[in-house]
Write a structure and sequence with these properties.
By secondary structure, the protein is mainly α. The protein contains 23 helices and no strands.
Length: 469
């Protein structure tokens, strides 16, 4: 493979894709299309592609509008369907794959282990990088290239935003209909045990889950739905929500259960002995998996709760959350802990059956573990914003859960938190900035994004009301 200097791929330019556009056709037709391309060459080409797009919004936008992203998706589908290196080279050159080779389909335990090798993982990583950085260009929308989820209810429809939204929706629809997510579903179902000693499989699962997370975030941003996750008037013309729901969230919950709870027949470690640390790769899969679950909850809360409230999945979800809460109590992992806390809130908000799930099972229950978090989660403002909305969601209109809560803390703390949230939202400075929707990303820790605003008053009264004997 001829060396391609990295600075040629990412050199600065005044118009979109200046540095990237001359090189991608070269990689498509020359490097990937030559019969003599080796597996190492393919991996190197994909890694170069990834480096060219990483942290570069303009290059990622070029990949979208030039339709080169579909080439990546086609190649990824081919790899997931079991293509070898030679077949991949021919496919990359001719782009002949049309996504309907059922005789090669992979589901459950029949997955070819070569699927988990570096090339497929690299394609997943590159595709995820592109999707996570995609956003319409809005002048002064923020600093740097950090990805944002823009509130989609703005009245401002610029000539750049509308084409971007249309193209991004088309891309998501293409991925949904080409069968890629179905193939990933089969890969997730193929995991039947620990992956602590399989770093390649851990890396694959992490990137595959990250791709679903990026797609949910992008879908939320471009489908023109209300920014409130509690608004039932939602529409997803891409079909992503329906597909994720029909595949039980692509089997991610199944996979998390298998890789986290394999060491014993018990659903979680015994209370008297600290849990052995999971391998770092397993923790990364769990972290990315929780991020994906939370992003799907934002996209369609009702579908999220419907999937996880199913009999088998609800118990698996409880075991996963309980095990991760135990792990976080033994090892410092704030990022993972916060994703778990937020996910429990989305799982239980206005869902009585799921509220029962978090207070049942082996003691201490999930609810009790949340109430027994370190003191700073009840005293530090930043950490309170993470925990309290989930406690409110888990206990609101559920007297039994409220009793469990009162055994560990005062309900007045939650009532005060709701009052502070209401007064802060009505502050003149905050009202002044509410119209600037385009430039502000959604704050997932805000109470309004965790618990319905129209129920704040009734929740306040519920937590202030003294428990009747």
């Amino acid at each position: 493979m001829r060396d391609v200097p990295f600075n040629l791929l990412v050199k600065s330019g005044s118009h979109l894709g200046t540095g990237l556009s001359p090189q991608l056709p070269y990689m498509d037709k020359d490097i990937l299309g030559r019969e003599t391309s080796t597996y190492t060459s393919l991996c190197a080409a994909i890694n170069t592609y990834y480096l060219a797009c990483s942290r570069c919004h303009l290059n990622c936008t070029y990949v979208l509008f030039s339709n080169k992203i579909t080439f990546l998706m086609d190649l990824l589908l081919h790899q997931l369907t079991g293509g070898n290196t030679s077949e991949t080279s021919h496919m990359a050159a001719a782009a002949v794959w049309h996504g309907n080779n059922e005789d090669k389909s992979i589901f459950g335990r029949s997955v070819n282990k070569q699927v988990f090798e570096g090339l497929t993982t690299g394609l997943l990583q590159t595709s995820t990088t592109v999707l996570s950085l995609l956003r319409p260009y809005v002048p002064d929308c923020g600093r740097g290239d950090a990805p944002r989820i823009m509130s989609p209810d703005t009245k401002t429809k610029t000539s750049l935003i509308e084409p971007f939204n249309t193209r991004a929706q088309d891309l998501i629809s293409y991925v949904v209909n080409m069968g890629l997510i179905d193939k990933l579903y089969g890969c997730f179902l193929s995991v039947q045990g620990p992956v602590d000693e399989s770093p390649k499989m851990s890396a694959f699962l992490q990137q595959a889950t990250a791709l679903q997370h990026a797609m949910c975030k992008l879908c939320f941003a471009v489908t023109g739905r209300s920014p409130s996750i509690f608004d039932n008037k939602r529409a997803d013309p891409t079909g992503l929500t329906a597909l994720l729901q029909s595949t039980d969230l692509v089997g991610v919950v199944h996979t998390l259960y298998c890789i986290l709870l394999h060491s014993s027949s018990l659903p979680e470690p015994a209370a008297q002995s600290p849990q052995d640390p999971y391998a770092p790769g397993v923790i990364q899969v769990a972290l990315t998996g929780l991020r994906f679950l939370n992003s799907f909850a934002l996209l369609d809360l009702s579908a999220f709760q419907t999937v996880l409230s199913a009999e088998g999945l609800s118990l698996a979800f409880r075991h996963i959350v309980s095990s991760l809460l135990w792990y976080c109590s033994q090892h410092s992992s704030e990022e993972l802990l916060h994703e778990v806390i937020i996910c429990v809130g989305y799982f239980t908000v206005n869902h009585p059956d799921n509220q029962v799930i978090v207070q049942s099972g082996r003691q201490p229950s999930v609810l009790q573990k949340l109430c027994q978090l370190p003191f700073q989660y009840f005293s530090h403002p930043r950490l309170i914003k993470v925990l309290f909305p989930s406690l409110i969601s888990a206990c609101y209109n559920n007297p039994q859960n409220k009793v469990i809560l009162q055994q560990e803390m005062s309900c007045v703390l939650l009532a005060t938190f709701i009052q502070d949230g209401a007064s802060s939202k009505n502050h003149p400075d905050n009202r002044m900035h509410q119209g600037d929707k385009v430039s502000q990303p959604l704050d997932y820790c805000e109470l309004s994004n965790r618990f319905p605003r129209d129920q704040w008053d009734s929740a306040l009264q519920f937590f202030l009301k003294k428990q009747e004997d």
